[in-house]
Amino acid sequence: MSVWLRVLxxxxxxxxxxxxxxxxxxxRESSFREVKELNGLWxxxxxxxxxxxxxxxxxxxxxxxxxxxxxxEMPVPASYNDITQDxxxxxxxxxxxxxxxxxxxxxxxxxxxxxxxxxxxxxxxxSIVWVNGEKVTEHEGGHLPFEAxxxxxxxxxxxxxxxxxxxxxxxxxxxxxxxxxxxxxxDSSRYPDGFFVQNMDFDFxxxxxxxxxxxxxxxxxxxxxxxxxxxxxxxxxxxIRYKVSVRGGFSxxxxxxxxxxxxxxxxxxxxxxxxxxxxxxxxxxxxLMHENPGYLYSMKVHLIAVSETSTYEDEYTLPLGIRTxxxxxxxxxxxxxxxxxxxxxxHEDADIRGRGFDWPLIVKDFNLMxxxxxxxxxxxxxxxxxxxxxxxxxxGIVLIDECPGVGIKDIRxxxxxxxxxxxxxxDELVRRDKNHPSVVMWSxxxxxxxxxxxxxxxxxxxxxxxKALDQTRPVTYVTIAEADMDKGGPYVDVVCVxxxxxxxxxxxxxxxxxxxxxxxxxxxxxxxxxxIIQSEYGADAVPGLHMDPPMMFTEEYQNALLQSYHxxxxxxxxQYFIGELIWNFADFMTAQGIYRVVGNKxxxxxxxxxxxxxxxxxxxxxxxLANETGRLLPD
Length: 635
Ligand code: GCB
Hints:
This protein starts with a helix and ends in a 6-residue tail after the last helix. By secondary structure, it is of the alpha+beta class. It is globular and about 75 Å long. An eight-stranded parallel β-barrel has the order 25-26-27-28-29-30-31-32, surrounded by four helices. It binds (2S,3S,4S,5R)-3,4,5-trihydroxy-6-oxo-oxane-2-carboxylic acid.
């Protein structure tokens, strides 16, 4: 970056505006903050009444759930669907209720200078939360956190245990994200009274329940509410522009200290905004692009707020990586070097726990990705747990961060109500994930019906809104080969395109892939002059099924199909083609249907994370690509 560009960057308005009222910092312990996890077994009851409304009619939140009727034990976090032997609960649509009591530490109650916050990492889809029978918050959307301050409430009856009740509804409508419809079957000769089904236009099981940790955490009454950082560098000097927002009160002093990975002092500053200069900067690099990937500094924000009667002290430490992202017509640049995505698409999905947060699974998946030589993945088709993003930051795994805009196929889902909600979801997503160096691009949707007339206004608004929230990252939505009348295309920075040649079309005809794929790339590039990522491609393979010559559903066919795509990727790689993300990392559960044999089998690993033949093919390729494109140091 030239001196002038650097000056411009320093003078320019802070790129990221604060979109929502209040921040959503990941809860971390510090000398002035405590965290109490409420994971474990909660009481649980599904509301099976015909209108699914008995819980509200009889105010189940006013008492212990166990007093309202039969309850079962339900693990949190987990999807409830696969926990029992009851198919009715697996396929349940409507409200389910959770509750538990918590012993709140006496000091949290007696110390008026402590704020106590209840936080749910995510619950799918719509949630209402009560504490001791009083509603404290509600939230729409299945994959992002929400919280409520409950300090005064728990101080009202300090000797009583605190009862938390959470009701969660998984019903999807034309205006939810993802959308769905409820269809009543009124033919009484074929269906019983009140029979209804949930229809969805997406290909994964609509797992529901409390999917991520429920926590209580404390902050002082005056506290660090949000931090935003943007990073840049010139030659050997790193630049961190920061902004801190404080809530809860009066005049305060903010001290910012930056430490390196070993805890050594690097730079400091005062005040709620400023720039930290990092001499001899260690940039954040992707895995396999540098010998020391995922380098993180720690930014300690220390607050002292003084009033006539009391002093409050808070401290929050944010890990951060210094890196830049830029896109040209043909390249994706990280730290001004061309980056080639060789990665996967994932799901938060596993046996028994469904979409529930699970450390062993997460760590296993990272080990598998590193074994494969993966340098990136897309959070298809919704935001993943924050702990996963933190792993990506530390390991240098690059992310395309996708919102839950999947299955937008019905023209009625392009209306104002849908768009407003979609904008709020982008606000929440950017607010949560803006400081992660691993996040290099936002994806606002997957395969919407972008050929429909309202799509142009919808995507123009959505993409412009997202760019206004965050001027440091490119924005895309993921399109599909067949959408040849793509209305939102002109607004994206990178064309992400999914295709399933020789799978959904021309079944079994691997010989057509080279022609169709290269024609298709040429057409997209000619039309938009943007770099292209193959954001999905793949074939189902039932593990252990073999045929040679290859036939569909065998491991050989999956391999051969990948190989035929790879040949074309290699031709286009030095032109405008900047990445390949296999569909999918692992097999995953879907709704039942004639196209799915107990779920989608396009994984290169089984759902239990055992490799199919394709995993070895991909491993060989990705390590070769890392050597060719990633500037790995010679052995
Ligand atoms: C797609 C979707 C993905 C599906 C996949 C498939 O285009 O984006 O959600 O699972 O195809 O296997 O059909």
